Amino acid sequence: MLDVGDLSDRAVRTALPPLVALRSLSKRYGDLLANDAIDLEITPGEIRALLGENGAGKSTLVKILYGVIEPSAGDIYWEGHRIRIDSPVDARNLGIGMVFQHFSLFDELTVAENVAVALRHMSFEAVRRGLKAVSEGYGLGLDPDHLVRTLSAGERQRIEIVRCLLQNPKLIVLDEPTSVLTPQESERLFQTLEQLADEGKAILYISHKLEEVRRLCRTATILRGGRVVATLDPREKSAGEIAALMVGAEVGDVRREAREVASARVLEVQSLSMPALSSHERALVEVDVGVAAGEIVGIAGVAGNGQGELFAAISGERLSDSPGSVVIAGVPVGLRGIDERRKLGAAFVPEERLGHAAVPGHGLGDNTVLSHHAMGGLVRTGFIAFDRARDLAKRVIGDFDVRTPGPDAQASKLSGGNLQKFVVGREILRNPKVLVVDQPTWGVDAGAAQVIRKALIDLADGGAGVLIVSQDLDELFAIADRIAVIHEGRIGRIRPTAEWTREAIGLEMMGVAADDAH
Is the dihedral of CA 471, 474, 480, 484 positive or negative? Predict the structure, then answer.
């Protein structure tokens, strides 16, 4: 048993033999070398970041470590012994726990029932006792009898972590764990992870949020093109320097200066209320939002508070009961569909890239037709002009630095960041009067995020109104002129960005009004 006190000293930790060591680990898919002779060690009590742009090989590496895929070459050593990990069951039996980016929970089951489903070797009463002990011991408060569908995104994240800890792992892999957390919840998570490290747990931490990596980790391994390009102490580098190592070039700071905007509204949402259609949805209650020409308005909030429902109502995917509840370019469109709204100059980028913004099995040229056909430029006597669509796709690929062989590449073959650049570029190419974007840079690397944010700023500078729904507060503080918070289907007062603090916006995301946060 490792001594907690000894592990609190960094010199002692780094002197320990590695818990897991990867030696010349490679994974090949045909001509693509996803992982190229990777060497990586993680010691007990260490919190190590694994960084890299989309497509760098991070996901492949952790899937090998968790037994989801088999390496093509190289060796894995666990506590000094060469091993094979043929399945997630093997990984868990060794002591490897994984907390995935996307929750795998049953909404209609309780907290305890969700945990019990994954821990079938334990009796239900043992699960309940373990839940209480672990959640209290690590400050991850959970009521075992609450239904998951009633919980916030932060509470659901706690279930995933507690479920992992009940398996008594020696190594915990976390993939973008703060993507749905408020600043206060993120800080509580960091304290928990530091406590786990002090107890001897090794933690592999994957995140695109470089400032939180600098806050939490003392070592970072950076991948680029499937290879390790650097191992460093992230506290000794700026976020910009780390990002440059990730993408292979300097990444500038994209930021919009405060400015006066025109009073003319190009988008107005007025007293919009819509009931939830199922237990998985959130009702919208008296929502009021206005966006002026040349303005960027940001909507912050924890996932599941009505962001998707708001996007559907504004885009026309779901119609309201009143024409005037949504007004685009002065025209009431509450009862009009998405194509009619596009013809008025509106463009929309939904959160889900594959399946919503793009058809996975279709080429990029074909996917351009999805939003451009309503404008008339791609329709001739009832037939789609696919050559024209391919030309437009080529323009998007060139203008937005989309890394792909060409316009015939299937959407599903692109990395998340490249597909997001394509989808955003496809809409901006229409030169819309209004652009509504849901999670513009969610899960994309620093280089792709820079391209997308600059494009949004340029569009607003050209006179368009831009509404951004985002869980990334750094993003909103950098590019939004005004910000409001959505919580349980209600939107608070829209304030100039300069009037917000991270603490106040985090509290309002948890349901505490900004006016009461002082």
Answer: positive
Q: Print the SS3 string covering 378-413.
A: CEECCEECHHHHHHHHHHHHHHCCCCCCCCCCEHHH
Where does residue 64 rank: exposed (0-12), middle (13-18), buried (19+ CB within 10 A)? buried
- Residue stretches of the chain with pLDDT short of 70: 1-15, 252, 258, 261-262, 374-386, 513-518
Rounded to whole angstroms, the Cα distance separating 510 from 154 reads: 10
- Label residue 366 left, alpha or beta by phi (over 0 means left) and psi (-120 to 50 means alpha): alpha
Q: Which amino acid does the sequence have at 272?
A: L
- CATH superfamily of the domain spanning 4-95+169-247: P-loop containing nucleotide triphosphate hydrolases (3.40.50.300)
Domain 265-516: CATH superfamily, name plus number: P-loop containing nucleotide triphosphate hydrolases (3.40.50.300)
Q: What pLDDT, in 10s, does the model give residues 85-123?
A: 999 999 999 999 998 877 788 888 999 999 998 888 888
Check: CB of residue 47 under 8 Å from CB of residue 205. Answer: yes
Q: Which residues contact 359 (CB under 8 A, 6 or more apart)?
A: 366, 367, 370, 411
Is the separation of the CB atoms in 270 and 491 below 8 Å?
A: no
Whole-angstrom distance, CA of residue 390 vs CA of residue 369: 9
Residue boundaries of the structural domains of the chain: 4-95+169-247, 106-168, 265-516
Contacts of 420 (CB under 8 A, 6+ apart): 353, 440, 441, 442, 444, 448, 452
The single residue listed with the structure tokens 């931490």 is 205
pLDDT per position as a tens digit, 362-420: 999 999 988 877 665 544 434 446 678 889 999 999 998 888 889 999 998 887 788 99
